[in-house]
């Protein structure tokens, strides 16, 4: 799943490529992907793209005051091309859910496809007059890289810190992968209770949120969209690396598996050498 650093890189790339271009067409190959009906996608035709921004993991394309908002969900991606096929999309013919054609003065040949792999569909596109009309954006917590962001007040909750970091209503943009990386850098158990963290633990967590995300943003910046997912995987220290050696202490990285996701951690760095148990055994170490 693309998270804040990858979405940020996509937004910067799209802003450079799209601003000033006119929308030639928005084609849909999946009726399910478009979650709104007013304004209609036809209202975008001929209008100028005036900027691209980010809200958490949402991409916001401003088209002269009407916004195309995209959430890539778990298996979605955005594929840019400088030469789109002339033929229109067919419903359900591929993993392409939608296509945006642009005219930069030389015809509607450039643009992007929004794709989604697998059968579990979560990709969403909205056409709205105000980004806040998208419920997911309206409910977002503060952006961790925004000026003035404070983590400490958000920790006054009796919930596992891993879950807190992933909750978009509390902190916008962090997902499964970067929460694993943040907790490893902070030397905290994923099952630690947020409101029970002591001063030293809070300080480590605050520092890790900033260092991990800012480092990832800089690493992703300027890379082609097609390289971002693989680049993200290569930069992970613990996430997705169960069975490998921890790059800090050399211990074996372990994981906890859930019904539809998993987390990875280093027992030496994060849990005092003790393995965490998953819900199948109902034993949790904090």
UniProtKB/TrEMBL annotation:
One Pfam match: H2TH
PROSITE patterns for this protein: FPG_CAT (PS51068), ZF_FPG_2 (PS51066)
Needed co-factor(s): Zn(2+)
Keywords linked to the UniProt accession: DNA damage, DNA repair, DNA-binding, Endonuclease, Glycosidase, Hydrolase, Lyase, Metal-binding, Multifunctional enzyme, Nuclease, Zinc, Zinc-finger
Transmembrane residue ranges: none
Single GO MF annotation: damaged DNA binding
InterPro entries to which the protein is assigned, alphabetical: FPG_cat, FPG_N, H2TH_FPG, Ribosomal_uS13-like_H2TH, Znf_DNA_glyclase/AP_lyase, Znf_FPG/IleRS
Enzymatic reactions: Hydrolysis of DNA containing ring-opened 7-methylguanine residues, releasing 2,6-diamino-4-hydroxy-5-(N-methyl)formamidopyrimidine
Gene Ontology terms describing biological process: base-excision repair
Highest taxon in the source lineage: Bacteria
Entry's family note: Belongs to the FPG family.
Protein name stated in the entry: Endonuclease VIII
């Amino acid at each position: 799943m693309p998270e804040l650093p990858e979405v940020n890189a996509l937004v910067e790339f799209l802003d450079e490529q799209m601003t000033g271009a006119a929308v030639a067409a928005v084609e849909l190959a999946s009726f399910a992907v478009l979650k709104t009906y007013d304004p209609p996608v036809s209202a975008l035709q001929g209008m100028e793209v005036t900027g691209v921004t980010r809200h958490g993991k949402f991409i916001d394309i401003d088209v002269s005051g009407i916004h195309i908002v995209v959430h890539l969900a778990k298996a979605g991606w955005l594929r840019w091309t400088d030469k789109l096929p002339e033929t229109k999309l067919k419903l359900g013919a591929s993993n392409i859910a939608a296509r945006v054609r642009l005219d930069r003065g030389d015809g509607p040949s450039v643009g992007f496809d929004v794709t989604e792999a697998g059968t579990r569909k979560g990709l969403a596109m909205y056409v709205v007059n105000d980004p806040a009309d998208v419920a997911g954006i309206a409910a977002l917590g503060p952006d961790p890289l925004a000026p003035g962001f404070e983590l400490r007040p958000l920790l006054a909750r009796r919930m596992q810190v891993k879950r807190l970091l992933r909750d978009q209503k509390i902190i916008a943009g962090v997902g499964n992968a970067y929460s694993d990386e943040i907790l490893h850098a902070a030397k905290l158990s994923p099952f630690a209770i947020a409101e029970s963290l002591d001063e030293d633990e809070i300080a480590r967590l605050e520092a890790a949120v900033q260092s991990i995300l800012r480092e990832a943003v800089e690493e992703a910046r300027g890379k082609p969209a097609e390289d971002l997912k693989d680049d993200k995987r290569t930069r992970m220290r613990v996430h997705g690396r169960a069975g490998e050696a921890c790059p800090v202490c050399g211990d074996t990285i372990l994981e906890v598996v859930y019904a539809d996701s998993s987390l990875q951690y280093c027992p030496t760095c994060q849990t005092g050498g003790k393995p965490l148990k998953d819900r199948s055994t109902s034993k949790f170490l904090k």
